[in-house]
């Protein structure tokens, strides 16, 4: 019964669903603002374990999106100077901010082992996912 799942369990199910159904989504996770701190905290993910459970605002692709409130599509992570590497296999990344009541409270972060796979369709699709997720937060 899905109603018995916690919010974190549900978010984890979303991560698994996305990773398993989109061939070039190799790591899918949700970060949220960590209380009153100017940092992001990893809530749940599907994919390889990461060292980056906490990311200060401004650091890496994720930390930049926490401040910009804008989608960040990275076709080639090697071309980024403010980037935090999780795995040497990752070639590209997409981060879409998650808004609740108009406030940027977190984000979905997706890494890909494929070069330059993300299109505007991914942006629109993941914006929709985040809008749906915001309803259960
Ligand atoms: N690459 C991210 C860090 C998080 S990992 O991808 C899970 C970044 O540069 O912010």
From TrEMBL:
Which Gene3D superfamilies does the UniProt record give?
Answer: 3.30.450.40
Its domain of life reads Bacteria
Kindly name one Pfam family recorded for this protein. GAF_2
The segment(s) forming the GAF domain are: 11-134
Recorded protein name is GAF domain-containing protein
Give the source species: Aquimarina gracilis
